[in-house]
Each structure stands twice: as C-alpha cells, then as structure tokens.
Design brief:
N-(1-d-carboxylethyl)-l-norvaline Dehydrogenase, domain 2, about 45% helix, Rossmann fold, about 15% strand, single chain, binds uridine-5'-diphosphate-glucuronic acid, alpha/beta
Amino acid sequence: MALKISVIGTGYLGATHAACMSSLGLEVVGVDLDPAKIALLQAGKVPFYEPGLEELLQEQIGSGRLTFSTDFSAISGADIHFICVGTPQAENSLAADMSYVDSAVEKIAKIIKPGSLVVGKSTVPVGSAERLRARLLELNPAVDLAWNPEFLREGFAVADTLHPTRLVVGVATPEAEALLRQVYATNLAEQTPWVVADLPTAELVKVAANSFLATKISFINAMAEICEAAGGDVTVLAKAIGYDPRIGSRFLQAGIGFGGGCLPKDIRAFMARSAELGADQALEFLREIDSINMRARSRVIELVRSELGADLRDKKVAVLGAAFKPESDDVRDSPALDISVQILAAGSDVVVYDPKAMANAASRFPALKFAQSIEECVANADIVLHLTEWQEFRTIDPTQLRTLVRSPLLIDGRNALDRELWQSAGWRVLALGRADTNPRES
Ligand code: UGA
C-alpha cells in the first residue's frame, strides 16, 4: 500500500513538496490555515510563480493521490507529517520567528496516529528539533520527530525536489530513518547521497549551506569593490578564479547581491542563535557578509547620483526587474525593490517593470509606478537600471530602446547584459565591479 503523508503549510516549500511527493507515488494531503490558498490549490492553481509546478499539481490532483484541506483532521491517517511552515525574521530582532512551527506541532500532536513520524523541513535555529521532539512526546508519547532540511531553489523548485543534490535526515531513532528511506525510495534508487545525522547537525547543515552561499556572493561583491577602486574587472576575475575546481564558478556573479526569503534571514538568525549559544565570535564574519551585501545596493544609488547629480528630484528612473531573482515572482527582501524605493524616497519618478513580480511588488510598495512593458518603463528615462537578470532583458535590442529614453544611460546591476552590444548602440554603460570603459567624451 502507498505510504501516506501529510504536508503542513502549503507555501512555497509545502506546495512543491506535496506535488512532488505525490508524483513519486505517495498519497499526500496538504493542509493550511489559509482557506484562500487551499481553495486555489484544490482548483489546481499555484498561488505564486514557479516554473512547472502548476502542471505537476494539476496532474497529481488528477491522479487522485494529492488532496488539500483546511481541516487538520484530514492528516490523521498519514504515516508521516512534513512541517513546511515559514520561519521569517522576527519583527524586533535578527532571530527567526518560530511561532508557526511551534503552533503546527501543538496543533497536530494529538491528531496524528500512533507510530507516525513528524518531520520538520522548515529552516530553524539549531536546538529547535530537540525542543520540539520533547514537546511532541510530552503531548503524544506514541510518535517521533525527525528533521529533514530542504535545499530547493526558487525557480528550480520542482527539479530540486525531485532530484535533490543530497538528502539529509536528522533522526533520533532507527525507525525514523527507516520511514524516511521509504519516502525517498525513488531518490535512493537514483543514488542520491543520503546523509544521516543527529537532530542538531541536520538543522545546522541547512544554515551552514545558506551561509556558505551568501559568503560566496559577498566575497565576489567585495572583490567588485576592490576592482572598482583598482580599475579591474570583476567579471574577468570571477571567471578566472572559477576555473579552479576548489573554488568553482557558480555563485560568483557580482552585482547588487542576495535577497529573497532565505539567505538574508538565515544568516541573521544563525548569528542570533550563535550568540545564544555563546559562540557568537564564530559567526562574526556573517555580519560583514550582510554589510557587503547591503552596501552593493547603496553603491548602485551612489552610481545613479554620480551620473544624474546629487539631487535626484524629478529625474525619471526606469527599473528593469523587481523579483529578488529571475524565474520567481518573490519580492521578499528584493535588492531590486530596495534600490527602487530608496531612489523614490530621494524624489525621483521611479517606474518598474518585471515579467512576473509586479503584482507582489505593487502590493508591498504601492507608491512605486509600474509599467506593462519594457518600452513603457523606459519611456523618457534619464537612466535605466537593470536589477533582476530576466532572460527577457537579455534579448532587448539596445538600438531600438535608445530611441525611447531621454538619455541612453544604463547601470547593469547584475553584470548580465552584453556591455559591448549596448555600448556600440550608443549607450553609456556602468556596472558594479567593472572599470568605466565608455568612450570618453572630448
Ligand atoms: C536559496 C538556496 O540557494 C537554496 O539552496 C535554499 O534551499 C533556499 O535558499 C532556501 O533556504 O529555501 P533561493 O533563495 O531560491 O535559494 O535563491 P538563490 O538562487 O540562492 O539566490 C539567492 C540570491 O542570491 C538572489 O537574490 C540572487 O540574485 C543572488 N545571487 C545568486 C547573486 O547575487 N549572485 C550569484 O552569483 C548567485
């Protein structure tokens, strides 16, 4: 008989996990407190943009294996319960807000059947799993709790869930590992690396991985600052160091830095937790990683001022990109939007265009203006800022675009456009970490 699982919390992580686990042959019920979200999912609609997920969701609902409910009693027959609720940054500190995870455990403890396993997937401060396991066993001694962190990237969520680079399971008992092996039997048959750990190590793997990625990005952005000061080119530097397999070329794209719902809040929560553990010195460097990252945003604004003058009032600034990265409509801690609102606050007329993220951006920052196309966005612009590297922006014809702007001035905040092409079409092009190679005006 097919293993039955439940997924608690149907946001990014949960909706993806539910659809993917169903496609692996498991019987899945997804539950959430938000009736609007559940109604959408029941109708085969994904409440956010994630390539390939909606098709998979519809296929799996059609198979009869995947259902959704707001009624938590629907999970009572499941063998395994995956907790996929959010752990955002707390309002008044750097720490993670654990209230959704805590209340999920409280809510399901007495509903679930004896012998079932609760599996946390949310990113949590180390020590949470042991604390939650103790609480769960206090409420229901016949069950167990494990931790199984998730490494999916937005934009590649389906592929990352179906074919993960590794599976990490933090378990307190061999029975818990055996159940998780059943869940991931397909991946194990594909030789996906299987790492068994204790609960704290499993929690730490996740934040260590995200801290490493954030460090890599801030490292190359620090090199960008040095390149600017010394007249070098960070894109050439990144390419050259990336050939060393010990370094690797990925995540060395210099620009306006990292954002989103994970990297920024995870490194902050990790610092906060290390201080609680009396080990804050070990993660002091993450403070610098965060500062370098935030500085990249300020450097774009300085560049705008250096081109348009200190007084930005009444300048028209066109912004290409609002999402925190391409192939996503997520605007949480988006560097592109952060820069946009800072320039708006300086008095400019800021118009933003993004292929997918405008609705989310508008609901967060209604004071920004939004255009329905690239052309409308750049019309009469004094400067164009390229801040999220969507494929659509790479195919822009700079000669045609030049006819629409007031002044052909581009800042490529992601080092992703073809600088020579734009320059040869008559644009002055500036980028972080690259010397100004524009022909000098005589
Ligand atoms: C990140 C991790 O990559 C996932 O492994 C992890 O599961 C996820 O967080 C999570 O904790 O849930 P994600 O937030 O989807 O995934 O995005 P990334 O692809 O890691 O990009 C993060 C940010 O870094 C973006 O703003 C991106 O534009 C920026 N970035 C990335 C750079 O500025 N330069 C680079 O070279 C790469």
